[in-house]
Each structure stands twice: as structure tokens, then as C-alpha cells.
Amino acid sequence: MGKEKKFVRDITPMDQDFAQWYTDIVKKAELTDYSSVRGCMIIRPYGYAMWERIQKDLDEKFKATGHENVYMPLFIPESLLNKEKEHIEGFAPEVAWVTHGGDEELTEKLCVRPTSETLFCEHYAKIVQSYKDLPKLYNQWCSVVRWEKTTRPFLRTTEFLWQEGHTIHATEEEARKETRQMLDIYADHVENMLAIPVIKGKKTESEKFAGGVDTYTIESLMHDGKALQTGTSHYLGTNFAKGFGMQYSDREGKLQYVHQTSWGVTTRMLGAIIMVHGDDSGLVVPPRIAPIQVVIVPIAQHKEGVLEKANELKELVSKVSRVKLDDSDKMPGWKFNEYEMKGVPIRLEVGPKDIEKNQVVLVRRDTREKTIVPMDQLETAIPKLLDDIHNSMYERAKTRMEEKTSIAKNMDEFKDAVDNKTGFVKAMWCGDEECESKIKEVTGASSRCIPFEEGNVSDEDTCVCCGKKAKHLVYWGKAY
Amino acid sequence: MGKEKKFVRDITPMDQDFAQWYTDIVKKAELTDYSSVRGCMIIRPYGYAMWERIQKDLDEKFKATGHENVYMPLFIPESLLNKEKEHIEGFAPEVAWVTHGGDEELTEKLCVRPTSETLFCEHYAKIVQSYKDLPKLYNQWCSVVRWEKTTRPFLRTTEFLWQEGHTIHATEEEARKETRQMLDIYADHVENMLAIPVIKGKKTESEKFAGGVDTYTIESLMHDGKALQTGTSHYLGTNFAKGFGMQYSDREGKLQYVHQTSWGVTTRMLGAIIMVHGDDSGLVVPPRIAPIQVVIVPIAQHKEGVLEKANELKELVSKVSRVKLDDSDKMPGWKFNEYEMKGVPIRLEVGPKDIEKNQVVLVRRDTREKTIVPMDQLETAIPKLLDDIHNSMYERAKTRMEEKTSIAKNMDEFKDAVDNKTGFVKAMWCGDEECESKIKEVTGASSRCIPFEEGNVSDEDTCVCCGKKAKHLVYWGKAY
Questions:
Q1: Using CB atoms and an 8 Å cut-off, which of residues 109-168 of chain B contact chain A?
Q2: What mean pLDDT is predicted for residues A46-74?
Q3: At what angle do helices B268-277 and B45-64 cross, to 10 degrees?
């Protein structure tokens, strides 16, 4: 235990300073590193391997629902960005501008894409003529840039990785169905791959996407009680269609504007994984996206037969999981700590005594529970244990979210909930933006979403702020 | 045949204007499109799907040889780019500069990465201390920017997609082995996935990478007799290690510089596919990277049972290949032309008469050969035919390359070969850069590589330019 204590001392305890705990984990689990480029992060192999697993799962889901990948230019000419008024107002303050190429000063400056709506619109306007060309269901994986003054790895950086889906449809109904479908795909991914429970809902007017009609969101709760938006899906209506002339002739030969959606998730999701599952010993990686699911640590590996058996076990276990054998000359205790820090779901220990008994010790990262398993049962025991770990990680996060969700009937209850219980506050709202901003001012909590479920408002319900008749139940919370 | 002629008229014949033929194919096969961003291309779904297959195959090969993916920032501060003298001299004239972020003017301008050597170096210098930390075998998939005045889709664009591998090693021997290994992986990929034969060799001093020691290359020959470099792998020695302080302590505790490599391939490979395999009817896609390997075209699809059978066949064929059923209401002849233009390797025709006889018609895109195949043999016939197509595409390209490769003993023969035979010219060279540039000036052909194979130089061999004793056999050619 002495070693573990020493190790734990290396990272700031969560209760002491949550922000520092986060930074320590990101750094010590080797997820990211800083470079001399202010505000940008280097995503290191261990962090990037998680992102690749997220990409793979989502990309398969996108393709299974008929989406195709494309690549749009990194740069957007100023005049193109300016075509949709609200859009440019939303993004202009935070874009990076290229003004010189080679030795020349450019005649028109180019912004580094903060999002690619305008490029997709320009392209769609060109390639779509008839209802037969619809829908177009495109997606792109890339990086985008938003100039940020204060940054934190994964949560807020000048450059980040994401995917952006942009689709156009003949009818509003179809486009709205797509918007919801993509949100459901995100929710499914976050819950079933990342073991993070979500609240699905709609953003209020003031929190929605610049230039869109409706923004749907999935919101999750972090360990410190703050909310994080892990994915959004926008119904854009015909706003961009009008600005960019995206029209098609319908079955009767009449020109119509297309109905549009866009939707995205980013490397923020890696931040959510840390802040939902991590503990004072480090990261806890959800098994289904873990780059290493099982690490084999040989005990007394200098003794005859140990490394040989460890290699045999690696062969065996690799049939059912992503496995790493650490046969370096570090002490087992040191290895234990390292893979705890990295959040590897299962540690498999094997030493001379285990070999005698034809067994191994399996240690779960999430609960630290130990089980002794006969070697010949590993092929079934490992996948089962990985599923168990996923399920208990999800359940623990869900229980915590529920425990940290309060109901507030008036502003005193609201303030008390935000200050003392942290987490989500469920409270009724009249729909007036004035009340929304007052709540934010007084409590620090912003509206996270109007939930799709449990959204019933009765005649007696009144706004938590002004006391007038309520229109919506809203999830509120301090947020990243 | 009337229809085919009409269709062919839509693209400029190759012999008439090769550049226009290329542009027509890129556009009409829907590989790329232009946008309002000068010099940048939109990669459309059909083109991007090919790039994804290239990525998948290479990424698997990189990972199988121990490489890990990372992500480095898009921007490089001017001072960091300046750290390696030859490197900055090589790239400075062609970079895009970000000078403003949001409303602020930046205190130090940032270039949009033309390549990420400097960022990798800075990171490696930080994370490597001991010989135990070596080697580091990193790769990244991203886009890079080089300011180009004249551009052509895939071949030369201001922004393009690529992968860049950057590795560091304890010894020169190990680094040189890595450099060769990666070139071999590229050659394997280009020959066995893209069906394009390559010449492997070393670049001359004047053609090598800015800041490196040795550049290895694979060179292929296009339909018009011009060469295209499809991949390069560089041994960088300790040049960057010295500039960036990349040192490690060896087993004796002595500080040593690391030995470095870098290697990359780009979306240029898609240009090579077009120019090696395409014909006057359009693209011919190598089967192993074809997004659609088999297209099913129903004949008389309004007749009872035809579409039903076509759907059944789609199910069956999808077990062994990537298949698309086109049941749109276009005429079969129109569909034939469309998928010829898109270069789909196999067309499967099925109509009422075929159904009666329990057979289908298979038409190869490359040779237009037709075969009648019983339906119950499709599961074996299709994979075999795809392999046959791959092999004949490779063989045809190889024969063409050999036919277009001349040997020149003197400058007259050299000029004659370049002007009248086109293709590669094999000629002896003294090793003097003056002769190299004179050859280029007089013939228009640059040195492509000093081949690894057939590189024997005898005492009697003399330089094709100056007549002095020869040092190397060189492949020369006009190039993209």
C-alpha cells in the first residue's frame, strides 16, 4: 500500500481541486501534451487511440444510416462566411484569419474553418437540382479552429477534432426526423460505448446554434456536478438554403428550398470520460473504447516459466479482447499504479503460485475487486467481466446523476441546489429570455435543455423566476 | 453502341488532350469539385471512399509494424519553424500565415502546417530521456497546406490530405531500416491494392527532402509517359535532433542524439489511379479499393420478378464483395455508361431471359469482356474475377511502363527518348549536380531515382551528359 499512497500523491485529489485533478490526469495518463502553439493540444497515442475507437463506432453508425464521408477545404473566404448573417455574427469573433500565402498578401482573407456549414451549402447549391438528388447525407471528420482565450485540454481548445454532419432534405418532416435520429445515435454511443448517461432535450432559443431553428442536445453530468454537452444536432430549416440558393425542383417542377440539418460531436467526449469515470488514482476507461482492455502483469517474472506462461495467456486473451503484456523490468507494484493511472479496465496477474494452480488473478479497475479465475475459463470470463464493468460504470454514473439532480420550486430552492447540492436543477420556466438570463446571473446556472421526456407541464406550474404560468420544464446547471 | 459514343463524347479523348481528359474524369466521375476557395478541392463521397480504403489498408500496415497514431496542432509558430535552417528554407516560400485570431493581431504569426516535423521534434525532445523510451514510432493522418500558384485536383492543391510518419531511434542502423521498411510498405500497398507497378530507389541530393540525409521514393509511370512520385520515406539523420535537442542517455548514461525518419503518402495516389488505369470511357478503379466492386443493373426491370431477383442477387453477392443495385428508373444503357465512367470493376446484368436460365452476365470494366455465369456460382466467380481484374490491371500497367522505358547512352538518344518515346529514360550519371541540371534544362526530364535494383555500374559506364566515369544508373523522366 505504501507505493500506492506515494503514487496517489502525484495527482491532486478530486475533492481538493477538481480542475487540477483533471489536468493531472490528462497529463499523467499521457492523453495530451502542450506544445509551443498556444491553446492547441497534442493528442498523444493513448488519447488518440480512444478517439479512434469513438470514430470507428460512430462512423459505422453513420454509414449504416446512409451517410457518406467527404472532405471540404480548411479555409473559408470571408465573403462566403458572410453569406448567412446570424452565422457570421456567431462565429466571427472567434476565427483565425489567414492573410498571407507564401510571400503574397491575399486579396481576400481566409478564415480557418470554425465549422463548414457555408462550404457544404455552396457545394449543395451546385450539385442539387431535382427532388431526385435528395436527400444528401454528408459527414466529415476534421479539425476546426475557434480562437479561445482560456483553454483546457479536450474541453476548450483553439483547435479540436470533431465530425460535422450536414444533410439536406426535401421536406421539413424528413429533416426533423434526421435531426432526432442523429441525436439518438449520439445518445446510444455515449451511453453504450462510453458508459455515460445522458439527458436528451432541446436547447432554448438563447442557447441554440447561430443561424439554426432548433438545437437538440445530449447533456451529461460530471463528477463535480457541472454539466457537459456531449453532442448536438441542429434543425437549420431553410435559413441557409435561402442565403445560399439551395433549391430543387419538386415532382411538379416547382422550385423549393431544401430543409437542412447539421450535427456534431468533438474530442470533448474524452473530457467527459475523464470527468465522469475518473477517480483519485487516475483514469477509468470504459471497456468498449479502451485501447488496452486487459493488461497482463507477471509476478516474479524472473522465475522459470512465468514469462512463458504470461505470453501464452496473452495469445489466449487476445482472442477475446485487446490485451497488453507488460514484461518490462519495472516492479509489479509500479506497473499496477501505471495501469491504474491509465484506467485499463482489467489487470491480469500471474505468478509462480498461480501457475501451479492453473489460475490467474483478475482485478477490476473500477471497483478494485479481485477474482481468481481458472486459466481455462478466461475466454468466457474476460468478455463477461468487461461487460460487467461497463454496466456498473454506467449504473454508478446514473445513480450519481440522479442523486445530484434537484427540483426547485422557487429561487431560494434553486440557489440552494446550485450552491450546496451541485448538479442539475429541474425547474419550471415561463419561456421568457429575461427570466433565463436572470437565473443565470443569480445562480450561475444556464439552461441545459428542455427534456424530451418528463416534459409535462400542468396548469398549476409556475416559472421558478417570475411566478407566471410555466411553459417548459428545464434542466439547469453550471456547465463546461 | 450509339449511346456509348454519345457518352464518350462527353470526355475529351486522352490522346487529344491528356490534361483535359484528366480534369473531365475527376469532375464527371464525381471525385472532386471546386469551391470558392482557390486552389483547394472538395473531395466528394466517391473519391473520399477510395481514400478511406487507402487509409484503412495503410493504417493496418502501420499498426502491424508497431506505429501509433497521434494528432499534432494545425499551426506552427514562426520561431519553431525556423529552428532547422534547411527545413525553413525549403518550406517558407509556400506556407499560409495566420496573423489574426478573433479581433486581435497575433504577436507571433503562425503558419498552417506544410508538414509537422518541427512539432514532432519539439514533442519528442520533451518526452524522451533514456534509451528505454526509444524507438518512438508515431504517425498522423491530417491535411497540410502549401501555397500553390497553379493547381490540379489531387496532383497539386493548396491543401491536401496525407499521412506523415515521424520516428526516432537510438541508432542510424535502426532508423535506416525503418526508412526502408516504410518504403516497402508503400510499394506493397501501391502494387497490391492500387495495381500500380513502382520503381523503388533513392533521390539525388538535389531532389531530396529539405533538411534530410536520404530520401527514398517510389515512382510510377502515368498513361502519358510522365512520372509520378507516389510515396517517399526520408532518413533525416541527426539534423533535426541537433536543432531541437532530441537526446537520450544510452546504456552507459552518455547523451546521444536520436536518429530520425519521416515518410508520407498523399491524396496524389488518387491522381495516380486515374492516370495509370483510366481510359476514354472514364475511371477504372482497382478492385481492392473500389467503393463499389459490383454494380447490378437489372434489364427490363418493370417485368415481373426482375427486381425481386436483382435484390436476391444483391444479398448473395454482398457476402463476397461491395455491391450496389441500381434500381432507379434510368435506362440500362445510361446506367452502363455511368458506372463505366465511375470505373466500377464488374457490372452484373440480369433480365428476364437470364432469370429463365438461372444465369447472369458479368462485364469487366477493364477489358469489357463479358461472361455468362450460373447464379449458383456467383459466390466463387465474383472474388475470382475481382482478383483477375486486379492482376491484369497491374500487368497491363507494368507492360506499358516497360515499353515506355528507354535506355540512353548519349544526349541525342536521351532527347529522342524524351520527345518521341516518352516515359522513363535509364541513363548513367557521374553524380555531378551540374550534369543533372543540364539534363533537365535540355530535355525537360528530372532525375526520378537511383534504383535499388539493377543499379550496377561497371568501369566502362560513362555519364550520359559529360562523358566522365559514371557513378549511378538513374531513372529520368518528365514528372508531375
A1: 109-110, 112, 119, 122-123, 126-127, 138, 142-143, 145, 147, 158-159, 161
A2: 98
A3: 110
CATH class of B406-477: alpha beta
Considering only CB atoms, A36 lies closest to which of B51, B68, B77, namely B77
Count of Cβ atoms closer than 10 Å to residue B265 Cβ: 25
Cα(A415)–Cα(B392) distance, integer angstroms: 75
The answer to whether domain B292-385 has CATH 1.50.40.10 is: no
Residue of A nearest to B56 (CA): A56
Going from N- to C-terminal start, the domains of chain B cover 17-277, 292-385, 406-477
Q: What is residue B290's predicted lDDT score, i.e. its pLDDT?
A: 98
Nearest 5°: phi and psi at B100? -130, 140
Select the CATH number that applies to the domain covering B17-277 from these four: 3.30.930.10, 3.30.70.260, 3.40.190.10, 3.50.50.60: 3.30.930.10
Which of A96, A102, A123 is the closest to B42 by Cβ? A123
Contact A75 B161 (CB under 8 A): no
**How far lies B155's CA from each of A252, B160, B277, B463, B480, in Å?**
43, 9, 16, 32, 7
Record the cell numbers describing residue B319, joined without a space: 457476402
- CB contact (8 A) between residue A95 and residue B102: yes
Give me the pLDDT at residue A38, please.
87
- The stretch A247-264 carries a mean pLDDT of 97
Binned at pLDDT 50, 70 and 90, residue A225 comes out as very high
Whether A80 and chain B come into contact, CB under 8 Å, resolves to yes
Q: Give the model's pLDDT for residue B88.
A: 79
Q: What are A132-152's pLDDT values in tens digits?
A: 999 999 999 999 999 988 899
- How high is the pLDDT of residue A303? 95
Interface predicted TM-score (ipTM) of this complex, two decimals? 0.95
Which of A33, A62, A74, A132 to substitute to test the interface with B, most B CBs within 10 Å?
A74
Q: Which tens digit of pLDDT belongs to each residue from B150-166?
A: 899 999 999 999 999 99
**A 30-49: CB under 8 A from B:** 33, 35-37, 40-45, 48-49
Mutate to test the interface with A, among B83, B98, B104, B154 (most CBs of A within 10 A): B98
In this prediction, residue B101 carries a pLDDT of 92
Residues of chain B with pLDDT under 70: 1-9, 455
Asked whether A139 and A165 are in contact (CB, 8 A), the reply is: yes
Dihedral angle computed from the Cα positions of residues A23, A28, A33 and A38, in that order, rounded to the nearest 10 degrees: 30
Per the document, the length of chain B is 480
Chain B residues in contact with A150 by the CB 8 A cut-off are none
